Amino acid sequence: MTEASLPASRYAAGEFRVGRVLSRTFSVLSRNLLPFCVVTAIAYLPFLLILGERGQRMAPGRAALLVFLILLLWMVLYALSEAIVLFGAFEDMRGRPVNIMASARVGLSRLLAVMGVAILVGLFTVLAAFLLVIPAFIVMTMLFVAMPACVVERLGPMQSLRRSRELSKGQRWKIFGLWFLVAIIVAIGSNLATLVGSRIGGVGFSLLLDLIWNALAGAFNAIMVVVAYHDLRVAKEGVDTDQIASVFD
């Protein structure tokens, strides 16, 4: 019997472990590679617009406005893509087929709250970074699962941050190790994609490889956060996948 055919309860046992989170993330992504990567690729497209405009000469005021609008578009698409992949990953973990349109409806219904979470997490992390690097990492690990808490439990932005702090308590070294390992791999892969792309096909091919890599990394990260949230709730509260995702029914 393959892992894909096992019941959803296979996700319900044991303590929080980094290796298990990574394994489950790979499993969910491998079964939904194309749809999830398409969703995250769309969220990354605004950055290609910024790169494409680098060689254009324009007034500083217009350039600043363009960058602001593109970043605003990215923020909206990023929040939406996170919610879409989150819902899709839960559906897969429950043994159900992933429906991107249904996932998009869930994402749109929580868009403002998810955007609020993304802004607050970024703001608190930046504020902590002004103190020193270590406080920024502490804040980041505390708020690691705020996004899935917002969508799954339908909490407001501040409530989602408090929920993440509660769930991550006692597991923050493991969460930091998980984040740090994946961040290093993503950074290395991004540099390799840029280097190989520029040497083989120039700037255009480099941008294409960069888009593909960031789409893959974005999908992996979104699923990883969802799986971590799930495993933290299992470890602390003893619930299973269907109980966690019942809010979507």
Features:
single chain, 249 residues, mainly alpha, 10 helices, 0% strand, disordered N terminus
Note down, in words, how this protein is organized.
- The protein is mainly α.
- It has a domain at 15-109 and 170-248.
- The protein has helices at 18-31, 33-52, 60-93, 100-109, 111-131, 133-142, 146-152, 157-168, 172-237, 241-245.
- Helix 3 crosses helix 7.
- The two termini are 28 Å apart.
- Mean pLDDT is 83; it is low at 1-10.
As residue ranges, the low-confidence spans are 1-10
Could you tell me the number of beta strands? Answer: 0
Tertiary shape: globular
How do the helices and strands follow one another from N- to C-terminus?
HHHHHHHHHH
* Share of β-strand residues: under 5%
Contiguous helical run count? 10
Task: State the helical fraction.
Answer: over 70%
Q: Termini, distance in Å?
A: 28 Å
The Rg value, from CA coordinates, equals 19 Å
Whole-number average pLDDT? 83
Q: How would a crystallographer describe the biggest sheet? A: none
Briefly note the structural class of the backbone.
mainly alpha
Question: Quick summary of this structure?
Answer:
The chain is mainly α and 249 residues long. The chain has helices at residues 18-31, 33-52, 60-93, 100-109, 111-131, 133-142, 146-152, 157-168, 172-237, 241-245. It starts with 17 loop residues before the first helix and ends with a helix.
